[in-house]
Design goal:
alpha/beta; Rossmann fold; 7-stranded mixed β-sheet; 13 helices; 19% strand
Length: 406
């Protein structure tokens, strides 16, 4: 498989993930207090010269994710008031919201250049191919938590904290091999050429492990796709994953209940959403393997800090929801910024700091690190890591026994 096709295939599954985010925001848990303990934050205000950090969110359009901005703003307040800033520098967060269309994305990218920010943070977007070139041409590093477009994965000037679709498929293939899976089926929505592209991408990871992998399309134009899904499971796979939005997760899990009740289930965060479990029952996901890049429960110090920052500065943001993307991207920039000088900080210095970043912790993801030297996945050199947290879904949807898959 050539590099261009590999990156294009990865982008297709990333786009499906972006679509899923739009659904997730409408159904976050109302019971945020079960996440775990919080703690008092230290008092260490920043006193150094401000650093302008651009933040491009998605609000005002079909996809509205105010949680991303709110969590990013909360993180900036925490850095400024409690964590001594970024190596002493105060964070001046410059926010622009686009509507997930080329026109508004172009406007936001140009605004970042005009306001001379030192770095641009983008949690996740379908418009990276529009924004990254504009920002990178001005020498400003473009930092995203997870890549969606091929441009984000490979164009100069981009740094992706997690491996996105590449990491998901890689971790699922490794887990399947470890569990003795011989036949693996992917249920995926029928948007664009996603099914064909992801099928190609999956071969890169599953075939060397001796695992037969196929895709089954979940049609969006029928009320109940159970017959199509059931037909696709006729060869009795050993394990199944569902790649799509919450609606597709519901359809897939309902079909699995009747057609393959004992099959191993490999689920991404979309399929663990409260809306899904309310529709299919928690028993439909209990015992499944979960593939994520964040932990929201438990007592790990980085996770407790995440919950504490949101509790203090963004109490309306559900720690179980997508706000973690805004938190992680700003916190990761702060991690990299610890190597910056005390004086004025330029975009060139920030870009060099990212290129030199090695084994830095991914915030609120115990065990995950990022290194931005282009070697994590050479076919997509902007990926700073391809590791995932693989957990078992326990009672009440709690993720248990999390391990890092590299």
């Amino acid at each position: 498989m050539n590099v261009r096709r590999t990156i294009r295939s990865a982008a297709a599954i990333g786009a499906a993930g972006a679509l899923a985010l739009g659904v997730l925001t409408a159904c976050s848990s109302d019971d945020s207090n079960d996440a775990g303990p919080t703690t008092d934050l230290p008092t260490s205000p920043a006193a150094g010269e401000p650093i302008k950090i651009g933040f491009i969110g998605a609000e005002g359009g079909v996809v509205a994710l105010p949680q991303l901005r709110a969590a990013a703003e909360a993180t900036a307040k925490y850095l400024n008031d409690n964590a001594g800033g970024i190596n002493g520098h105060k964070v001046d967060l410059v926010v622009c919201n686009q509507q997930e269309d080329p026109a508004s994305a172009t406007k936001c990218a140009n605004e970042m250049v005009e306001k001379k920010v030192a770095v641009v943070a983008v949690p996740m977007t379908s418009q990276g191919a529009v924004m990254l070139p504009i920002i990178a041409r001005s020498g400003i590093p473009y930092v995203a938590q997870a890549p969606v477009s091929a441009v984000e994965m490979g164009a100069p000037g981009g740094f992706m904290i997690s491996g996105g679709s590449v990491a998901v498929l890689k971790a699922q293939a490794q887990t399947a091999a470890k569990e003795g899976v011989k036949k693996f089926t992917m249920l995926i929505g029928d948007s664009g050429d996603a099914a064909a592209s992801i099928g190609q991408m999956a071969q890169l990871f599953f075939k060397p492990a001796g695992i037969e992998v196929k895709t089954v399309i979940i049609p969006s134009n029928v009320a109940d796709p159970t017959p199509q899904i059931t037909a696709g499971l006729a060869d009795k796979p050993d394990a199944v994953t569902i790649l799509g939005d919450t609606r597709q997760c519901i359809a897939g899990l309902k079909a699995l209940k009747s057609a393959a009740p004992t099959v191993k289930k490999y689920l991404i965060a979309t399929c663990l959403d409260k809306k899904v479990t309310e529709a299919v029952g928690e028993d439909a996901v209990e015992g499944a393997k979960a593939f994520t890049t964040v932990v929201t429960t438990g007592d790990d110090p980085s996770v407790v800090q995440y919950r504490s920052v949101l509790a203090k500065y963004a109490p309306d943001v559900d720690p179980h929801g997508v706000g973690y993307l805004g938190y992680q991207v700003i916190s990761s920039i702060a991690e990299v910024g610890h190597s910056l000088p005390a004086g004025p900080v330029t975009a060139a210095q920030f870009k060099a700091a990212f290129a030199a970043a090695k084994d830095l912790p991914v915030p609120a993801a115990p065990g995950l690190t990022f290194t931005c030297n282009g070697k994590a996945f050479p076919k997509a050199p902007n990926l700073c890591g391809t590791s995932m947290l693989v957990s078992t879904v326990g009672p009440d949807g709690v993720l248990e026994d999390s391990t890092v898959v590299n």
